[in-house]
Amino acid sequence: MDNVFNWRDSKINYITFGTGDETLICFHGYGQNCQIFSVLEPSLSQKYTVVSVDLPFQGKTVWGEKSKLSTELLCELIHQFLAHVNASSKISIMAYSIGGNYALGFASAFPEKINAIWLIAADGLKVKPMFNFVTKTALGRALFQSFVLYPSWVFYSLKWAKRLRIASSKVVKFYYSTMDSKLKRQALLDRWSSTARISVNPSKAIEAINAHGIKIRLIFGLRDSVIPVKNAERFAIKVNDVVLKKVDSGHQLLKPETNAIIEDMLSQ
Fold first, then answer.
1. What would the mean pLDDT of 84-99 be, rounded to a whole number?
2. Which residues contact 166 (CB under 8 A, 6 or more apart)?
3. CA distance 153 to 65
4. Beta strand pairing status for 114-120 and 215-221?
5. Which residue from 20, 43, 125, 253 has the least number of CB within 10 angstroms?
6. What is the pLDDT of residue 192?
7. pLDDT score, position 156
8. Which H or E run contains 200?
């Protein structure tokens, strides 16, 4: 059943399941919603009470904040949401794909509250110069906004990236599917801008993770062309308490088969 947390001018949608003592906050991938984690209920519900959240501009969440959130307001939002869901004193986090940025941003802001972070085919494990440029600089944001109205130059660049083998066909196809209408391009701008508010440099997240003894559990697909497994391998080398599971799969890892992997990793 959907639940709503009202904060300032926003309505944040979420679902809960499970009966475990520890709270697990879940962040979904691009263009998805909080229901996507329901497939993992068999492996998660005994250990955790799961709180899966619709991210800003996605699912049923209505994001009404008109300006960029300050660090203080983000901290206020997180504190009040955790109190609203009656979270355990220490929590764990699970994130899939672009949700990884939220997980690592959370870890950097409140490492003392976190036991473990589960990163499934997760983004945010390496520095992304282009993402940072278009979301965190004035020039980049202006170009991004112009792209919403005049996208042809980006499509032309993608075509040449494919021809020059800078980007794979699957990656180019993925980007085309998220940008082939003005509505989709505006959603991309809104969602990336929202993600940029909380995303951090991976090295900052790793420093906080190691300093507070946070467990890191990574599940990545060997055939993932969206977020390569090498990102997880390089990240894992720098983390003290880490388990990396590589599976014969592509990017889609929120599926019933992943339950067996999670159940095995819960004991590690």
1. 97
2. 160
3. 30
4. parallel
5. 20
6. 79
7. 73
8. none
The radius of gyration of the chain's CA atoms, rounded to the nearest angstrom, is 18
- Predicted confidence band at 14 (pLDDT cuts at 50, 70, 90)? very high
Q: How far apart are CA 259 and CA 44, in angstroms?
A: 8
Q: What is the total residue count of the chain?
A: 268
pTM of the shown model: 0.86
- State the angle between helix axes of 129-136 and 138-149 in degrees (0 to 180), rounded to the nearest 10: 90
**For residue 31, is it left (φ>0), alpha (ψ between -120 and 50) or beta?**
left
Strands 48-53 and 10-17: antiparallel
pLDDT score for 8: 93
Q: Match domain 3-126+201-265 to its CATH number in 3.40.190.10, 3.30.1360.120, 3.50.50.60, 3.40.50.1820.
A: 3.40.50.1820
Q: What are the start and end residues of each CATH 3.40.50.1820 domain in the chain?
A: 3-126+201-265
77 and 53 Cβ atoms separated by less than 8 Å: no
pLDDT at 137: 82
Measured CA distances, 162 to 156, 168, 185, 262 (Å): 10, 6, 20, 35
- Contact between 217 and 118 (Cβ < 8 Å): yes
Judged against a pLDDT cut of 90, whether residue 164 lies above it is answered with no
**Amino acid in the structure at residue 233:** E
pLDDT band at 182 (very low <50, low <70, confident <90, very high): confident
